[in-house]
Amino acid sequence: TQPTPTYRRVMLKISGEALMGDQGFGLHPPTVERIAKEVKKCHDLGVEICMVIGGGNIFRGLQGSAQGMERTTADYMGMLATVMNALGMQSALEAQGVHSRVITAIRMDEVAEPYIRRRAVRHLEKKRVCIFAAGTGNPYFTTDTAATLRANEMNCEAIFKGTKVDGVYDKDPVKFDDAVRYEDITYDDVLQKHLGVMDASAIALARDNDLPIIVFSLDEPGGFETILAGDGTYTIVH
Ligand code: UDP
Predict the structure, then answer these.
(1) Alpha-carbon torsion angle 76, 78, 83, 85, nearest 10
(2) Where is this region: Involved in allosteric activation by GTP (predicted)?
(3) How far is the CA of 198 from the centre of ligand 1 (A)?
């Protein structure tokens, strides 16, 4: 039996690194396909899905500026990287028969459509997956903030942050065996304890709008579907 989703409209945020598989850089097509299939399962349940994908598998603004590049230029390169990832995901979704739109915060009309809120809402109502690309369109921000911003604008019920681990821990569970996972935690605790869930501006934006953040493992097969039904292991930040 299929799990019954408890959500109607959600934001799925994944990092660019989630798409690179074991390659260490760029897009790994089988990994992108695997994630597209996870999204399809949830889409098939009737959940309206927004997505934001980072760009860290291709370019990070901070790295560029550390190497002497002007920060804003480097950030624009990072934003462009997210567009590449979004197009890769769109293509993988299309191969699964899922209709989607790539919507960019920076105009590039030949490549994807510009962000127009009402238009994006309409796409969701028509059950098209909306992949929001180019971050917020502004330097000095991250795609975590972009995901939170768009989730608010699209009236998503929650942000689902797919990571390599199944929630938020008190210390890095990869390095420490005795790391403890939180079942739930407040936005303020995440900020005070400097837990690396999302950057501080994203957490604050979620907090100020009562938008829950659900951290779960994207590596778990069927994980997204299970989490959407309220089962499985995850941490909720609220
Ligand atoms: N970026 C930006 N403004 C935004 C979103 C992203 O300038 O609103 C740039 C920034 O340089 C960032 C890069 O795009 O380093 C890639 O995004 P991010 O680091 O959030 O990707 P992730 O870590 O999720 O893969």
Answers:
(1) 170
(2) 21-26
(3) 12
**Ligand 1 atom with minimal separation from the 14 CA:** 24
169 labelled ligand-binding: yes
Residue 13 assigned ligand-binding role: yes
pLDDT in tens, 114-145: 999 999 999 999 999 999 999 999 999 999 99
| Predicted local confidence at residue 31, as pLDDT | 97
Asked whether the beta carbons of 60 and 75 are under 8 A apart, the reply is: no
Whether 141 is in the pocket of ligand 1, judged by its Cβ within 6 Å, is yes
Other CB atoms within 10 A of residue 209 CB: 11
210 is an annotated ligand-binding site residue: no
Q: Which residues contact 191 (CB under 8 A, 6 or more apart)?
A: 200, 203, 204
User: Rounded to two decimals, what is the model's pTM?
Assistant: 0.97
- CA 2 to ligand 1 centroid distance, Å: 35
Give every CB contact of residue 65 below 8 A, 6+ residues apart in sequence.
71, 74
Asked if pLDDT for residue 2 goes beyond 80, the answer is no
Indicate if ligand 1 lies below 6 Å from the C-beta of 64: no
